[in-house]
Every structure is written in structure tokens, then in C-alpha cells.
């Protein structure tokens, strides 16, 4: 069956630039993809983050231009964001696999870098969030350790903190963080990707010796990333940024055996990519950890259909209309 492919680029400016170990991120660029056939219409989103091993915006644009001219192109190898978007769009067309019923997802609140996290944590907890995520490796480590101790000591019973280093720590700094976090076993959910890709063996040893759970993120998007998604290959959480990880059907089969370890995480996508990712999660009933999608309020536009909240509710998702988002660009 023949298809008609249409593409729209977008540029979204953050309300406030995001501070990470990679630097400041002020503008989100990507593409929406519309695939139409006699059987129906499907939508996908291409949301690259080259720092995580994906294609660049320019590489995605080049492929998408060719796809518009030749809709019969196969899913591209080496362009995981384009492959994810195209496969997700095709899956929505009636001859594709029908979606599962939406379910409830708890959301991990995203805190700002630096000392402002302590005040923001109180506000998020008052709103009902039970899980918080804080970016580290942004300020000098001595300053961040002081802020972190204050933050951990302030958490009510049952509230847990995730710390995300974006693969930025030195081995010495990693040890200093472990020393602090090991003293708060009830408050720490996990430390995410403290060391760069290639240092997984060291991270595994430190996880075992310290008792602090270590999550992989950037490592999953590296050349050997799929090897850590095998049963028993990694003992800690697996932070999955689905729009960066290729064909959605293949990804679903890869994640099923380890779904209990999976933490679904945002790439600051628009509503189309968000729904693509959540539809994948719907097929993984053992995936129960809070998702990292406290990102929908990061932009001053109407391209997300879900409001910031401690939980993503099925009723909210059932109102999703990709054509509305498409027409806003």
C-alpha cells in the first residue's frame, strides 16, 4: 500500500534554559512526521539529541527530505530518531498493530540545577510528587554536595531523589557522591550515569560495594547499548529515551524482558513524541517506575496535550489529537 509522507520542522524555545552537565540548552528543534495511506493516518516525531548518540537535526532533515520524495524508503539504520518516528507513525495506521489501553503513570518531578532545587522540591512535594530528579555536575562539587545533603535531609518519608550526572563525573567526584548518597538509603532512588560510556564495569563495581543504585542512560544509546538491555546484564535501573532508540517494534521486544528495570524518560519532545513513547510503555505492563516526563511545561506553546502533574491519567491521553498539534506548527 502506498503512503504519502509530510514533514514539518519545529523550533521550541525553553521558558528558561535547561542547565545540564553538557551546558545550557535553550532551543529544542525537531520534526513532526505525518504518514497517510488509504487505511488511515499516523504521526511520529523526530527529536534528536546528538549528545546522546542520535543523529543531528541536519542529518534528520536530509533523510526526511528523501522520505517525502520516496515514501517507500526502509527504516534508516544509523538514524534512530527518524526510525522511531517513522515506525511509530506506521504503527498507528489500521494495518499496523493496534494500541494498548492507556494506564496511569507516576511522574518524577524535574528540579532545577543548583540550590534552587531545595525550594522547588518543597513545592513539588506539596503538589503531590513522590519522586524527584536533580541534575548534578553543573556547579562545583563541594557546593552541590552541600545542597544535596540539605535536599535529602528535607525529604518526607516515602519521597525519593534521583540524581543525574549526564556522564560528567570524574572517578574521584563519583566516589565523593557515593559516600554522601550511601548515608541516605531510604531517600536515594538512584544515581544516573555518573561516568562516561565505556566505564560501565567500574560503575557496576561501585554500585555493588556502596549499595547505591546506579542507572544507565547515555550508555544505552552507545554502540553497545543494547547489550545492557539483556536480562541480568545490568543490576540497576535502565533509563530509556525511546525516541532516540530506533524502530519502536524492535525496541518493545528488546525491553519486555527487562521492563521492571525500565525508567521511561523524556527528550523534551512535543505531544506527538510523548504519546508515541507512552504508547510503547502501555505495552510493557511490568514497567512501573515513575517516568521522567515533568517536561511538558518547559515550553510556552501548545504543542503538549498533557498538563504538568504528578500523574499522567488515561482520560488526559484519550483527548490526544495529533492533528491539532500538527496544525499548530
Please characterize this protein's 3D structure.
The chain is built from ten helices and twelve strands. The chain has two domains: 4-92, 2-Layer Sandwich (Enolase-like, domain 1), CATH 3.30.390; 105-328, Enolase-like C-terminal domain (TIM Barrel), CATH 3.20.20. The chain is of the alpha/beta class and 329 residues long. The strands form four sheets. Strands 5-6-7-8-9 form a five-stranded parallel β-sheet. A three-stranded antiparallel β-sheet has the order 1-2-3, with helices on both faces. The chain is globular. The two termini are 28 Å apart. Strand 7, helix 5 and strand 8 (188-192) form a beta-alpha-beta unit.
Give a brief outline of the structure.
The protein has ten helices and twelve strands. It has 329 residues and is α/β, with parallel strands linked by helices.
The helix content is 25-40%
Domain unit count? 2
Q: How large, in whole angstroms, is the Cα Rg?
A: 19 Å
Strand content: 15-25%
Number of helices: 10
Question: Would you identify the CATH H-level superfamily of the largest domain?
Answer: Enolase-like C-terminal domain
Strand arrangement in the largest pleated sheet: 5-6-7-8-9
Under the CATH scheme, the architecture of the largest domain is Alpha-Beta Barrel
- Note poorly predicted spans: none
Task: Report the mean per-residue pLDDT as an integer.
Answer: 95
Question: How many strands, what sense, and barrel or not for the largest sheet?
Answer: 5 strands, parallel
Provide the CATH top-level class of the largest domain: Alpha Beta
Structural class: alpha/beta
Q: If you consult CATH, what is the topology of the largest domain?
A: TIM Barrel
Overall body shape: globular
Task: Please give the alpha-carbon distance between the first and last residues.
Answer: 28 Å
Oligomer: single chain
Task: Give the beta-strand count.
Answer: 12
